[in-house]
Amino acid sequence: MEITIDIEDPMPLFTQLVEQIKSAVINSKIKPGDSLPSIRQLANDLELNSKTVAKAYKLLERDLVIQSKGYRGTFVHPHAIVNSKVDLNAEVLAQLNNAISACKTAGVTDSEIRIAFSSAMNSNNN
């Protein structure tokens, strides 16, 4: 599996990494059960901050594309192929669009929606 990061790309570096690993899974360049480099090793190989790689790995683990087995390492999840095809961002965007449409139908202004969204985000971060 070859990963290339483009620092000129407006897409965040961790997102580039997530997308490339998912693509490698979908295209069978890496298979369920295969081991992945450690966060430190991949960060060194790609000349990235280890926190960037850790964030990508955390998202991939959340999406059940990879799984950490403690000191034994990180591996491609048994259901990674199916899980790599799920786009949580698209799902969240669809839900937000539905909520915004419902608010606008009820006569809520864009400004009120923004304020409510910000308030909801702040109350859920605590």
Give a structural overview.
The protein has two domains: 13-84, Arc Repressor Mutant, subunit A (Orthogonal Bundle); 88-124, no CATH class. Helix content is 58%, strand content 6%. The protein has six helices and three strands; from the N terminus they run H-E-H-H-E-E-H-H-H.
Largest sheet: 3 strands, antiparallel
SS strand fraction = 5-15%
Query: In which order are the strands of the major sheet placed?
Result: 1-3-2
CATH superfamily of the largest domain: Winged helix-like DNA-binding domain superfamily/Winged helix DNA-binding domain
At CATH level 2, the architecture of the largest domain is Orthogonal Bundle
In CATH terms, what is the fold-level topology of the largest domain?
A: Arc Repressor Mutant, subunit A
Helix content: 55-70%
Amino- and carboxy-terminal Cα gap:
39 Å
| Number of alpha- plus pi-helical segments | 6
What is the element string, with H for helices and E for strands?
HEHHEEHHH
What's the structural domain tally? 2
Organism: Colwellia hornerae
InterPro entries: Tscrpt_reg_HTH_GntR (IPR000524), WH-like_DNA-bd_sf (IPR036388), WH_DNA-bd_sf (IPR036390)
Domain HTH gntR-type: 11-79
Protein name: GntR family transcriptional regulator
Structure in a nutshell:
This protein is mainly alpha-helical.
Task: Name the descriptors.
126 residues; mainly alpha; Arc Repressor Mutant, subunit A; 2 domains; three-stranded antiparallel β-sheet; 6 helices; 3 strands; transcription; DNA-binding transcription factor activity; transcription regulation; DNA-binding; WH_DNA-bd_sf
